[in-house]
Write a structure and sequence with these properties.
By secondary structure, the protein is α+β, with helices and mostly antiparallel strands. It has helices at about 5-15, 60-65, 75-90, 110-125, 130-150, 190-205, 225-230, 245-255, and strands at about 20, 25-30, 45-50, 50-55, 95, 100, 155-160, 170-175, 180-185, 210-215, 235-240.
């Protein structure tokens, strides 16, 4: 198919605003009107690899996401599921961070449509709704604890069966194996901070011997009065998970030693 025919197929199937610019032998830059949330355009190249015409982002999509996210966080939890679902739905391959879609049977327009849809779906992880972001934070917290604390020394959603058989006062993760177990809370919002405050005070009234650790999604978003009250009962706090993983890991290691 000629270059002009390819352009016409792109425009007919995807958008009339699409342009092709040659960047050498069997290589074209594909300009589309589609953008990431911050206004940057999708990066798409049409090139021939081993005799096969292929669409590629040449690693730009993941690189763009890492402006705001830790690269490791793209490979686990809710974000990983969203990315994998998009890749599967549109038959796009991930080759060590480069996203690729081979063009079969000269279906250039259909292939570009699928590729653009996949890139846009993947870019969704950078602006999840607050509820989805909350879910992502809790997934990230759980994954982090699974990686840093061996299974025999942790219990998720712990409660004191003797004092609280109805599970009214829970702990997101209880770390065992030392004289004072560590009660860890993952705190995405004001309501969860209030609940954690109530639980810690109740544990004190029961006379439990424990230490506490609070890990916030974003401490700056917590109401100042709510945070002040919680700080009275919490032993140690980290303002967020993503920027404090090394410090939290060290804190856990020292606590479990």
């Amino acid at each position: 198919m000629s270059e002009q025919a390819v352009v016409l197929d792109f425009q007919r199937k995807v958008s009339e605003k699409i342009r092709l610019v040659s960047e050498g032998i069997d290589r074209y830059r594909v300009f589309t009107p589609f953008m990431f949330e911050d206004g940057d355009h999708l990066a798409i190249v049409l090139r021939k690899d081993d005799g096969q015409w292929t669409l590629s982002d040449e690693g730009h999509t993941y690189m763009h996401l890492t402006y705001d996210l830790d690269e490791k966080d793209l490979r686990k939890g809710t974000r990983e599921r969203l990315i994998n679902n998009a890749l599967s739905a549109f038959s796009v391959n991930d080759r060590e961070g480069e996203l690729l879609l081979s063009i079969d049977d000269e279906r250039y327009g259909d292939s570009l449509y699928s590729f653009v849809q996949a890139l846009l779906k993947i870019s969704d992880v950078s602006y999840l709704s607050r509820e989805r972001a909350r879910s992502t934070f809790l997934d990230d917290f759980r994954t982090f604890m699974e990686e840093k604390v061996q299974e025999s020394r942790r219990v998720f959603d712990w409660f004191d069966a003797g004092h609280d058989p109805e599970k009214k006062y829970t702990v997101d993760c209880r770390v065992n194996g030392m004289a004072r177990p560590l009660f860890i809370y993952a705190l995405p919002n004001d309501d969860k901070v209030r609940d954690a405050n109530i639980s810690l005070q109740q544990f004190e009234r029961w006379g439990l011997n424990f230490g506490s650790l609070a890990i916030f999604d974003d401490q700056e978003q917590i109401n100042r009065r709510v945070l002040a009250r919680f700080s009275d009962v919490s032993d140690k706090q980290f303002s967020n998970l993503s920027g404090n993983k090394d410090r939290i890991e060290k804190f856990l290691a020292d606590a479990m030693a």
